[in-house]
Every structure is written in C-alpha cells, then in structure tokens.
Amino acid sequence: MLWSDRKTEMGAIAAMEHPFSLDLHTIEVSDVRFGPETRIDDGTLTVAAAEIEALLLEDPRIAGAEIEIARPGESVRIVHCLDAVEPRVKVAGDGGVFPGFVGPMRQAGTGETVRLAGVAVLTSSHFPQPASGLMQAREGVVDMSGPAAPYSPFSRVTNLVLLPTPNPETSNEDYDDAIRRGALRVAEHLARACAGATRSSTTTFTSGTRHPDLPKVVYFLQLQGQAPMSDTFLYGHVIHNLVPTPILPGEIMDGAIVNGVYVYACYKNPTYLHQNNPIIWDLQQRHGVDLDFAGVIINRGHNYTHEEKERSSLWAAKLARTMGADGAILTGEGGGNSAIDMMLACQYMEQAGIETVVLSSEATGEDGYDFPLFYSVPEANAIVSVGSHDGFVAMPEVERVIGDEFLKEDGVLLAAGVPARGPFDLRMYYQYCGINQLGANVIAGRAF
Amino acid sequence: MIRVAHYLNQFFAGIGGEDKADAPFEVRQGAVGPGRALAMALGDQAEVVQTLVCGDNRFHEDPDAAIEAAIAVLEESRPDLLVAGPAFNAGRYGLACAAVCAAARERLGIPSITGLFPEAPAVDVFRSRTVMVPTGDSAGSMKDAIDRIAAVGLRIAAGLALRPAAIDGRIPMGYRANWVEAATAAERAIPMLLARLAGEPYASEVTLPDQAETVTPARLAVPLAEATVALVTEGGLVPLGNPDRIESSSATRWAAYPVADLESGAVAFRSIHAGYDSRWVDEDPNRMVPVDAMRALVEEGVVGRLHDRFFATTGTGTSVVNASRIGDEIAKQLINEGVHAVIVTST
Q1: Chain A residues inside the 8 Å CB shell of B132
Q2: What's the pLDDT score for residue A103?
Q3: What's this model's pTM, rounded to 2 decimal places?
Q4: Are B34 and B60 in contact (CB under 8 A)?
C-alpha cells in the first residue's frame, strides 16, 4: 500500500466519531432459581442445572459438577471460593466476551455486550494435587448474611456457585485452566440465553470525546502476575513481561482481563471485579461531568527486582504524562511486593506534577499498633484505605454451607479440621475480596 | 440508671488554686463543680453519685498512693463509669486524670474517660490506656468538653464497642482496626482526587510516618578472610514438617538449623514461604541458603569460615513490629555465636 493510500485510510479511521466504542447493556437479575430451561422472566433468572453441568463436563479434566445458589440475606456460607465471573454475551460486533478464552481472538471493547447484573458465577473447588507455598489455592469465604457479610462484596449479589471436582489425574495447573474456562463458558451461556430480555440501562465506553475544560484523570491499574495460581490473564495470556500499557476502559469492562490469583482471598480481584471495575464505572459516570476520563494504564505488579520496579514506574508516569493527566487513581492487587511498584508509580507521577490517590491495603499487626503500610513514599499523601489484612472476624454458625464441610487448612495460619458451618474466628486473609484494592468493598482501616 | 464517679482537682472542686494544690484526697457524695454540668449533659439516664478530689501537688508527690486511694473508693462504689476532668491543657492535672482513668479501667474494668487538649503532656503518655476526648486548651471550652465526654461516656458505660476515633469524637488511641463504611473505597477515592485537583481540603485515610528509619551498615571487625559468616534467609526454608511452626505468612517466629543437615541431605528441607514459587528451592535448598557457594568461597580463602547454623524466617506479609523484633533477636543470637558478618538471602 502506498503511503498516500494509507494516509487516506487513517484519515477515514480518525474521522469516525468513536473509533472504539462499547455499548454495555444491563439486564437486572433480582433472583436466581433452578428450572427446566435457562431463561429470564421479570428479573428472575431460571437456570437449567443439567445444562450448566454438561457445559463443565465437556472438559475431561473436570470429573464432576454440582451447582448451588446463594442469595443475599440467606444464612449461607460459601467456602473454597476461587474466581467469580459476571454473565456476559456479545450481541453485536466482533468476537466473544472473554477473548483468548471463549471465542476467537478479537478486539474487546467494541460492539455491544449484554451483562446480567446482580448475579455472579462463583467457582468453589479443591485442587487434585498437593501444593505448597505460592502454588496453593488458599481458603476464601463469603457469608451471605450476618455480621461477616460486609467482609465480602459477593454477599451483595446472588451467587450461582459452580462446584466442579477434578479428574484425579489432572495437574493443578491444568485443572485451574479447566475450571477457569468452564466458568467463563457458563457465564456466556447464561447471558446468551437471556440476551433478549428488557434492558434497564446502557453505558457507552468510548475513547472519543475529550473535555478540555475539566481535569484529566488517568487510571493506573496494577495487575498481579507471579506464577501459576497467582496470575492474571490479558486476552488469555499471563502478564509476566508486561510493561505499563495503555488500554481502553471498554476493553477491561468487556472481559479482556481474567483473574486466576488464589494467594490470599482478601486481596483478590476476581474477573467479576475487572468486568465491573468500580473505578472505571465511576470515572465513566463522571466523564464530562466533573472530570475528563483520559485513559487507563495497566501494569504488572510484583516486578522481580527494584530496578525493574523503577523502570516500570518511570514508564507508568511517562504514559500518564503523555495522556495529559492532571490526576491519577492507582489500584493494585496483592501485598508488600506489589505495594512497592504502586508507591514508586505514585512517586514518579507526583514528581511529574500529577496528583495521585492510591487505594491501599493495610497491615496493622494483630493489635493494630503497627505502621500500616508495607512501603511508602513521602509523595503518597492521599491514600484511601481498603482495610487491613490483620485481625479476625467472628463468623457465626450458619444454616447451610456450600463448598465443603471443613475450611481448607494451609500450614499455620489456618488450622486443619475447622467445621465450615461455624462458629469460628476467621482471619481477614480469608474473607473473599474483603480488602480488594480495586475499591469494590466497604471495609476501611481507621484510627480508633 | 448509670452510676457515674467523677474525679477533680482542688481547683475545680472549689477548694482553691495553686496555694491549695496540696489538698488531700477526699470523696464527696454527688456532683461537685463541673460535675453538675456533667450531670446535666448525661441526662436522665445517668447520675453522678460521687466525686473524688485530690490536690495536684498531693497527687504528684506520691502518685501510687493517690491512685491506690482512688481505686479503693471505686472498688467499693463500683460505678458504671468514671469521668476525670476535663483537664484541658493542664500538665499535672491532666496526668492525674489520665492515670486514675487508666487504673480504673485496667484494674477494675470500669469504663473511664477524660478530656484533654490534644497537645497536653498526658495525651501521648496515656494514649493507648484510656479513652480521651479532645478539648480546647482552657476551661473556656468547658461546655463543649463536657458534652463530648457525656456523649462518648454514655456509649462506653453501656458497653458499646468503640467506633473510629473521628466518628466517636475521641482522641485516637494509637491503634487501627477495620471498620465497615457506607461507601466503597472506589466511591471515596474519586472525590478525594477531585478535591486535590480543585485545591480543596481532603483527608488521607492513612498518614505517613514522620521519618523512615535509616540503618548504617556495620563495619566488619576482622578481615573478611578471617571472618565467620552466617547465612540468614527470609525464604522460609525449614526441615520437612516445619518443627518450629514458622508461619507461611505474617511470621512471628524464626529458627536456626544446622548447616550440616542441609549439606549432607540427612534432613529434607522445604520452603513454607507463601509468597513465591518455591518448587526450585525444594528441589535444591542451596538455591535459597547457598551453602555450596559459601563452601567454595571458604575454600578459596575469600571468607574465613561459614557459621555452622543458618537462620530462617518467612518474609511475606510480616508486620513491621514483628519483622523488627525478629531481626533484633536474630542479630543478638548471631553476635552471641561469634558471627562477624551475614549474607541475607531474600525472595
């Protein structure tokens, strides 16, 4: 192609009003129940359990599958929680809703996608092979009612809980891949069956309109990528070599990021929270109102060396500057290692004249008297606390337990043989997404 | 009815000023001086049943005796709440109020509260030991101080748990804990950023330390070729079965193990660290505790000798308090064992 022709083509693209635009349609789900056919009527999602089980059993690495429903307000505890996914289906445009996992590799964040709001497909399972260290999936608990309910954002949605069991011959990594793909297929299947229902709202995520009179805000989203069982996937692939990269808000809200981190459940940013990233939802709502949402930068936390962390943070600040950022919100996933990447990014952005707000977890020690941050820089003077991983929550006895009779022991912090029904005191570590740094929960560390 | 005891100095009890500061400890029935305003503020649910009075000089001449006298009275009367002061910015009176409150709470389990100017000397001394509300620096703010004391006092007398200091209207006690907010963290973050961008006031939810601790590297006391070098790791390397129960995360413990066991393979070592992919270390522990490399350096004459024990803990999610203590304890042990230098391997 001649340069002159290419120029014409680029001009044509630039002339399009919104080169990347996603219409995200919301269908509200008020209840979920089992029935003969998967469909939605007046907000009640009926799920054909046999269909879902068959979808999971398509994968020979999965030996069995049961399904349960947990509703907000019920005396129910879900244990062994792994990933959570919001049902989504692409209804116009190219590709699927989880590129790299379900459907062909296509550009996310374009066309039209339907979401079933108020319901999560939540996987609870155990792994076939013994594991230790970072390679083990640790306990994650959701209480659907009672005093512990606020410690998980998933107490506020109806959970369709997938309970697959592994083929005993399968490796943990293979089984993890199987249940991840299984949950994503189920999520798409549910939304597909309901895509024609009445929509309550549509949100458009575009990269088009600028508002030069409003402050430009950039969102810096740090993702966890360490090893199997502690990885995040971008278009189906691990992010170990990711450098700070601009990404469209609509891509993230359209399933470009899938989570597979099972380190400590309190820190987890499951796929559901990427699909519904609360910072992006809010920035989009305020775009053109009191701010100009200038873009998203993703990055890998947990870079190995200090030099790599410096390199990565410098690039993040540089990108934010090229986007014209006046301010930036920074979120992450994980503990001390990722906190260093985050704080360095904050430091370089502040030094570049970009005002930051960092969402941070705390480690206050058992009695609460410890200095709460793993790492800090003097420039980090606007921090929103998502709460401390230290301390315990009193978990009452519940009527029904989903997932297992016993909690999953993991060495010393969680002992063997704790009946899941309760009562017991549970470390914050195991409260599913309790202190997620995407900001989706209501827990906060406070001076008492 | 909530029964309240009140502690005052000689001035607020109406005995007199500095010239009467040696007034002895005494007990009066009912409310005295600011106790009347306190009774009004507490309302119908509470009654000021007695007032404990002690001169400021008398208290500080022998604080233990004054506290014993107050404790004896309170043990007898068993009030539901002890209020002391408010003492505003007073030095001696503030310390007396806080000390009596701390003793009542710690020794008798009686809920207690005082009111102090946030920069008063007693605040830092007694911060974690008694409930305090902030007041102005002088008795001019008496009405406001009494109202604050009454509001928090009624809650703690009823056995209600403390809420965050900012919500209760208290001086922070120095510890942090989780609290359930109405808004999500994301909903709080964006207004904070917009306030910053508009140059409006905002409050960070975590405040940074005044200054970071700086550590000066120690000087090697002997030439390296004569030095005893120990290996220390936060990589969680322990004998199979983790006999010392070192936590896989948020460690509170450390242990030392014979280098010979690792070298001979007589004992199987495993990493129990929860924060890295430890399979490669389990395969060959020298990858975490490099005994093989150290032996080579000794052989070459670069270092004098490898210490016969290595020290291990887990460094992930560990609180600063525990990490500092563990470091201090290991360092002392290393010195006791005649070690000149260490190599710390981390993950």
Answers
A1: none
A2: 83
A3: 0.91
A4: no
